[in-house]
């Protein structure tokens, strides 16, 4: 039954250090095939020059849920779909900054797409403004 439903929950958390403009990212993984997905995502995030993976000092959270796309009759996995959301801690509450969905033929491709979108939609605006990822909601 586990092969019929893949549920991977990933949580990434990041914040910017004003001194050297590094985004510190924490990766939390749960569900099935977590080691593979975590490895792929960490590899992609390490490829960004200003991202460091850590378990401390974070403010922004990227949460991801991944589910397989199955052929109805054969139950063959044809790819994966992921829903991800970015929230920023503001005092005692979390504010939604962004939400998106990605589709990939395999977990590696999906991890690449998620990391690229996270970089483009969340980290890049902070790089340009030279500020931490703002707590205000992202304009859609």
General description of the model:
This protein has helices at residues 34-46, 107-129, and strands at 8-17, 22-31, 51-53, 60-70, 77-90, 93-104. It is of the alpha+beta class and 140 residues long. The protein has one domain. It has a 6-stranded mixed beta sheet, with helices on one face. Helix 1 (34-46) runs parallel beside helix 2 (107-129). The longest helix has 23 residues, at 107-129. It is elongated. The termini are far apart. The model is unreliable at 1-12 (pLDDT under 50).
- Name the shape in a single word: elongated
Total of helices:
2
Q: N- to C-terminal separation?
A: 38 Å
Radius of gyration: 15 Å
Q: What is the assembly state of the chains in this entry?
A: single chain
Overall mean pLDDT stands at 75
**Fraction of residues in H or I helices:** 25-40%
Number of domains: 1
Order of helices and strands: EEHEEEEH
Q: Indicate the low-confidence ranges by residue numbers.
A: 1-12
How many E strands? 6
* Major pleated sheet: 6 strands, mixed
Strand content: 35-45%
Secondary structure category: alpha+beta
> What is the strand arrangement across the widest sheet?
3-2-1-4-5-6
């Amino acid at each position: 039954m586990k092969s019929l439903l893949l549920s991977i929950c990933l949580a990434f958390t990041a914040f910017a250090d004003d001194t050297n403009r590094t985004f510190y990212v924490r990766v939390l993984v749960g569900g099935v095939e977590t080691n593979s997905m975590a490895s792929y995502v960490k590899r992609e995030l390490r490829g960004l020059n200003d991202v460091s993976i850590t378990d401390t000092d974070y403010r922004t959270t990227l949460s991801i849920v991944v589910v397989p796309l199955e052929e109805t009759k054969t139950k063959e996995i044809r790819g994966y779909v992921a829903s991800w959301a970015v929230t920023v801690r503001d005092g005692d509450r979390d504010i939604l900054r962004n939400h998106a969905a990605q589709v990939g033929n395999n977990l590696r491709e999906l991890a690449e797409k998620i990391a690229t979108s996270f970089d483009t939609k969340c980290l890049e605006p902070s790089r340009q403004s030279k500020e931490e990822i703002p707590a205000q909601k992202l304009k859609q």
